[in-house]
Amino acid sequence: MTDTSDIVLSTQGLSKSFGGFMAIADVTLDIRRGSIHALIGPNGAGKTTLFNLLTKFLVPTSGRIFFNGADITALEPANIARRGLVRSFQISAVFPTLTVLENVRIALQRRESSVLDFWCSDRRLRAFDQRSLQLLDSVGLASLAGKTAGELSYGHKRALEIATTLALEPQVLLLDEPLAGMGIEDIERTAALIRLAAAQRTVVMVEHNLSVVASLADRITVLARGSVLADGNYETVSNDPAVIEAYIGTGDD
Q: How far is the C-alpha of 6 from the C-alpha of 188, rounded, in Å?
């Protein structure tokens, strides 16, 4: 096995079939510690299936998954989350009727205890406020701390989701199409947040558009029909004839 000192997350021969359909076929992947690694590809490439395998929402048909050198193939999602492999929007879903501050505070409570205590005293809850405000400030939402989360714009909701995920202090943050459905202004704001999140951890993101990740990703893995089509930096994959062919006629998916 390859030296894993610089590899935080990897797969070996990972495959997933649904009946007779092979959604992921023999994918071997190395994600380096401290990098932003993007998984991209045209429609039906297998991005979401691979993402769900990495986060253990799906069980592989064959192959293995390693996190910090340990085999996590058989572990449950909650177990790997406690180890520091955290999927955004998994535990950090926004509660629309709670305030922005309360959303982050719940995430901090979740990290402190395996069971949320919704009936704890106000004094105990206030102990989380300072850290909650720091996290909100880091994503530009401190001024909206008292606002109900359901009132936030789409871009601000995504920022809140990132803040609540960061509250769990992940080693690896997995983002499932964090830029989907956004306008140019929100894309730029969220891209800045992803860079901020990556300053102290590894980020793995699923994205459908090669140009969107060009300025973000250190490394890009391109999938097509469940297999790795290309892997490398933006210049390498964007000039790969197989990648160009895969995207021709597919649109931006």
A: 29
Query: Cα(first)–Cα(last) distance of the chain, in Å?
Result: 36
| Rounded Cα gap, residues 56 and 78, in angstroms | 9
Contact by Cβ (8 Å): 156, 136 = no
Tokens of 20: 């007779």
Same domain, 189 and 65: yes
Per-residue pLDDT tens digits for 38-81: 999 888 899 989 999 998 889 999 999 999 999 999 999 888 88
Rounded to whole angstroms, how far apart are CA atoms 184 and 179?
10
How many angstroms from the chain centroid is the CA of residue 204? 5
CA atoms within 13 A on the CB side of 137: 6
Give the DSSP per-residue string, 143-196: GGTTSBGGGS-HHHHHHHHHHHHHTT--SEEEEESTTTT--HHHHHHHHHHHHH
Cα–Cα distance for residue pair 32/125, rounded to 1 Å = 37
Asked whether residue 159 falls in the same domain as residue 202, the answer is: no
pTM: 0.85
Give the ranges where the chain is alpha helix by DSSP (H). Answer: 47-54, 77-83, 100-112, 122-126, 129-138, 154-166, 184-198, 210-213, 234-238, 241-247
Do 10 and 57 have their domain in common? yes
Say whether 53 sits in a helix, a strand or coil. helix
Are residue 174 and residue 79 in the same domain, yes or no? yes
- Nearest-angstrom CA–CA distance, 85 and 88: 10
d(CA 28, CA 63): 9
Range of the domain at 148: 92-167
